[in-house]
Amino acid sequence: MDITTLGAAVALSKKGVEKDVGDLKRDVAALSEDVEGKLDGNQGAGNAGKLLGIGSDGSVVPTAPTGGGVINDAATGADTTWSSGKIDAAKQNRQADNGTFDGVDLSTIYADADALYADLAAENYDHIHVGDYWPVTLNGTYRDYGNMTCPAGVTYYTDEDMTAEAGVTSEDVMVTGMTQDTNIPGCHKPFVTIKISNVTYYVAWDDCLDYQEKTLANAIMKFEVAGINQYWRYGDSGKNGFENGKPHLLLSARDGLPHTLKMRKCNEVWEGQHIDEFTGDGSTADFTLSGTVGTIGYVWVAGTRKAYNTDYTFGNDKITFKAGKIPANGAKVEVEWCEGFTPWTGSSLYRTFNDPDHGILPLIQAADAKLFSHIYTGPNDKGMRYHGEYRNKTNQTGGDWQDRGVLFLPLEDEIWGRWIHASGGNGYCAMSQWPIYMGGRRHFAKGAGNAASRYSVWCASSTYVYGFAHVSHRGFPDSYGANNALAAAPCFLLS
Length: 495
Hints:
Layout: H1 3-39, E1 51-54, E2 60-63, E3 68-72, E4 79-83, E5 86-87, H2 113-121, E6 133-144, E7 149-150, E8 155-157, E9 165-168, E10 173-180, E11 188-196, E12 199-204, E13 212-228, E14 249-253, E15 261-262, E16 273-279, E17 286-288, E18 295-301, E19 304-306, E20 312-315, E21 318-321, E22 332-338, H3 348-354, H4 360-367, H5 369-373, E23 384-385, E24 403-405, H6 412-416, H7 421-424, E25 457-464, E26 467-471, E27 477-481, E28 485-486, E29 491-494
Antiparallel strand pairs: 1-2, 3-4, 4-5, 6-13, 7-10, 8-9, 10-11, 11-12, 13-14, 14-29, 15-28, 16-22, 17-21, 18-19, 18-22, 20-21, 23-24, 25-26, 26-27
């Protein structure tokens, strides 16, 4: 091909390219005009969240999604499954992906606890997931009823019998030791120990205060969403009686309180303990106690402890001695009874949590009054029912009402799960594992922001007469004597 022919071919090719480019520009312009004509308009606030589709007449219309997919939640950054235009209910109890999941600080999404509650009451869980938390900063003094204080002005002794005086306390002194004795009323020795200048002395139990004051300073408690609508009933009549009741969040402290706390002063010394005294006449078998009895502790006749079912029975606040076991004429009868129905409600830690004037509860109220106003307190201001409730009971009277406390601890089955009906029977299937604990022991190790992770903490389950379950340092269930000190992570319902 000569140079003239080549130049003509190039010129022709150039014209073709220019024509193609021009056609493309015209096509784009037409498409833009078409799109603007059909889409450049306000679709209406009521169509928020919908997709744009083609209607039967060919026009563009807002359309709800009909398949499945994943939407990114702009507020939390979390992926949320959608179906039929609504948040999938299964996502309500979305579990943290691993043990170090920090969750979302709900106070960064909601202006205050009232706003959080408004979404909860409307059953809108778009921004509420298991593992998210509401922070509360606790400040102030509370009473630890698992310990005691010897006040100033008390005589102390060098011997257990408290016969050799050594001096008088010049200031409040922490009690360092309490000794159990189940063979005497009260189940404890009449003395406690203190230390002055590192020397151990003895003082009378009855001369001491039954608490020790402790102070919290900017203790940040992250109350984590452990479950959403976890309980089908928890003390009120509920919505339509049988159904799920009011929407509620189960919140559990991610961190233990800064101070380790005892479950009881002594293993078998219950809070709310009373000792009633009577005198036998040789014929009276029934002895009526002086108050509303939750649990019978021990019974002594003439200084000897008697055995339940062998020597006496108990019912309706009355002790009845069996034939041949009736106290003799002039015999001193002493009955120890407690106000708490369960080992947990009879514990010092329960009182430390729930004392309305000096417990942890009023510190939460002082820290966040709006949050406190939505904490479930129950019909008798003692919180939700124990998990063994009867469904048809809607008031707090009768032995089948078991208060759990406004602030409470999880049971063993709520942490590790419960066996099936075939091995446990009806009552043992009433409770389910909290979603926050599903997926393995790694979920127990969260926290450590204040004093402890959520392992090595107390549970509300009593393992034997003087011990309670706890989450061990490796995350498995274990038991511990009630007079030992462990971390405590309070829980409550927001409803």
